[in-house]
Specification:
Elements (H helix, E strand, L loop, with lengths): L5 H18 L3 H31 L4 H50 L2 H4 L2 H17 L3 H30 L5 H4 L2 H51 L4 H6 L2 H53 L5 H42 L13 E2 L5 E2 L1
Antiparallel strand pairs: 1-2
Helix pairs in contact: 1-11, 2-3, 2-6, 2-11, 5-11, 6-11, 8-10, 8-11, 10-11
Length: 366
């Protein structure tokens, strides 16, 4: 997979959102709003839960506890209602988006010159783009699904940093534990976990793109030699006269050999993320240990432990999702670029190849 510059990826992504706004109006915006509420809600619950635990373990003021409980229940109820409404709207629009994606290609077909419509290379180019989009969701569909990831990344990183800031400000009285170097160490540990996840995802994506290209060949070959050739009665005579069944058997054997070879790629696609997951687990253990040591030395109460452990986990998720988003964006930008190459085919119909022009009033001008 050829590496793209970030500037080119931004331009491709921006154009993709423009296509979505034209053919699927409101879908990406409503998915972004849904994910904003969905990602922010856990942080609200974490903050109120930490305050309730602090009250129960320290002051135990009933009026404060009651107000915290009422607030968290009310806010969660409102968020849940909005999420359910937006989820139903997004699901409805997402189920319709495949039809609108078809219109993208039909509009292009209507704008092409007749010579280009009969051009085999152009139609093959369209077929490859359509198969990647409708079989695997590569391109525009990934952009729709990636909208939620973008919002989730922003909320998880920004809010988690705000809520974990006091972790490093709180003092234990021990110079070693209170040293600013731990800020760099903890954040570096979380970033390393995200980077390992990014490298694993990028490796997985490169294998997935290779698998997609091979799967297109597999699908076409199987549909003809494994299905069309045997189920279409009009081909029965040709199959018997020219012994096309022997050719079909050879092709089926090639498909079986390809399936066995692909098992190795499937193993690698699972292996790299699992190694990254193990590194992430070690990073989480280091964060938990740091929070527990500061709490043991009296820097903060039990409620703050609940808050810091939760938000550091969310911060790690945000950085990992950021790395995934960067890697995934490169993947679907590659497919979007192929689609743009097809959509940008010039229309030669009105470029001087026609000697007679038909006007809207049915008058002809030569």
């Amino acid at each position: 997979m050829k590496k793209m510059s970030f500037g080119e990826r931004i331009r491709i992504t921006k154009r993709g959102f423009g296509i979505l706004r034209k053919y699927c109006p409101g879908l990406s915006e409503q998915k972004a709003l849904y994910e904003f509420i969905h990602s922010l809600q856990p942080f609200i619950t974490i903050w109120f839960s930490a305050r309730i635990v602090d009250e129960l373990t320290n002051h135990c003021r009933k009026d404060y506890i009651a107000s915290y409980v009422i607030c968290v229940i009310t806010i969660n109820f409102i968020c849940t209602v909005f999420q359910n409404v937006l989820l139903h709207i997004c699901n409805e629009k997402e189920s319709q988006m495949w039809i609108w994606f078809e219109k993208v290609f039909s509009d292009k077909q209507m704008s092409l010159d007749y010579d280009d419509l009969e051009d085999v290379s152009i139609q093959k180019q369209r077929q490859e783009v359509e198969e990647n989009l409708f079989m695997f969701g590569n391109g525009l569909a990934q952009l729709v699904w990636g909208t939620s990831v973008m919002v989730k990344v922003f909320i998880n990183i920004f809010v988690a940093l705000l809520m974990s800031g006091t972790l490093f400000i709180s003092k234990t009285g021990e110079k070693i534990v209170d040293h600013p170097i731990w800020i760099v160490a903890i954040l570096g540990c979380i970033t390393l976990c995200g980077f390992s996840n990014y490298k694993a995802t990028r490796k997985e994506n490169s294998l997935f793109m290779k698998w997609c290209d091979n799967s297109l060949w597999f699908n076409r070959t199987f549909m003809f030699f494994g299905h069309e050739l045997y189920t279409n009665l009009e081909r029965a005579k040709d199959v018997r006269i020219y012994r096309q069944d022997t050719l079909a058997i050879k092709k089926i054997e090639e498909l079986e050999a390809w399936g066995k070879a692909e098992k190795k790629n499937s193993f690698h696609m699972a292996f790299f993320p699992s190694v990254a997951g193990f590194i992430v687990g070690l990073g989480n253990c280091a964060c938990y240990l740091f929070v527990a040591i500061k709490a043991f030395l009296g820097a903060y109460g039990v409620g703050s432990v609940v808050q810091y452990v939760s938000v550091l986990t969310r911060l790690g998720d945000g950085i990992r999702d950021l790395m995934f988003m960067v890697s995934d964006n490169e993947l679907y930008c590659a497919h979007l670029k192929k689609m743009y190459d097809y959509l940008d085919i010039p229309n030669h119909m009105y470029q001087g190849s026609l000697t007679v022009e038909k006007r809207e009033d049915n008058e002809y001008y030569i």
